Amino acid sequence: MPVGVQIPPHKELATEYGVSVITINKALSGLVSEGLLHRHVGRGTYVMVRPASTSGIAAPTTIGFVLRDLSSPFFSLVAHGAQQRADALGVGLLFASSSNRLDREEEQIKRLRLLGVHGFIIVSMSRTFRLNEAIQALHDADFPYTMVSWTAGDDVPFVGLDLAEAGRKAAQHLLSLGCRKFGYLIDSVGSLNGELRMSKYRSTIEEAGLEIDPAFVFQHAFPGEWNDYKSGYAAGEAIARLKDRPDAMYCFNDLGALGLEDALLDAGLRVPGDVAIVGIDDIELAARARVPLTTIRQPVGVIGARSVDNILARLRGERPTVRQLLEPELIIRASTPSLVEVAAK
Fold first, then answer.
1. Residue 128 vs residues 34, 103, 131, 184: alpha-carbon distances, Å
2. Whole-model pTM?
3. pLDDT, average across residues 233-237
């Protein structure tokens, strides 16, 4: 059948071939998993690519990696980890950038499917942190994919950091240093990801008999990862203008934390003397900041490698654990005071 043609209804196929509808469903699901067919929710099933040659030489396994920006300081490291793992296993990896556009992300997913990739690793542009239409179509078709940007849903395949636990580690560290006035820089108040990162940070502080002052909760003023430094800088300017300031800030990511730090330093405040700062990610810039940043490290190499392994497991007919949460690691640098500095106060 030519590419683009719609497959007849399942009942018609069952009648034509003299088999059950269940058999037809299984057969078509297998072809969808192989990337030969595409199910469009509410419209039907369509031919996506022509079958590979039957000369006896199988087409090599290829995984599509869709990310929002090839130069992203965090996700480019995840992509590097995936590439190393794929190379070691002899698996092809095709990269596509969404160029920081949600519509472009959907185009790239469709284009890579037409090229015949066997699975997807996806960094979603969406900061609603839910599946968009193109990824939902993969999900509904049971096409192998793994998210490496946090996405809500117990049934959504995800490999990444235990973000709630990261907040707990940040709070414990700041509490151990004697901090008492806690703030938080969130991507957007009410966002699923931001609130998850804040959840155990807040509860750990409350268990210590303290609280996060709502006046010390700041949100990113500018949308998009590429503006996170700018948003952090704006939050730092706002904190510098306060008469009563937090003495500790935990940030949604390192880019925001670095912007926050620079704004405080530019305003003549001391980091960590006036405000201690903890980020999350451990991007390369964190260690080279004006005041090297204390942060929660995300194991980017493990995330990339495991995402490749998950796709290959799916292609073998296995069902790997859907939500794979990795243990966070606290990396202590100069943006939080040392115990020696605390004792000297």
1. 29, 14, 8, 19
2. 0.79
3. 98
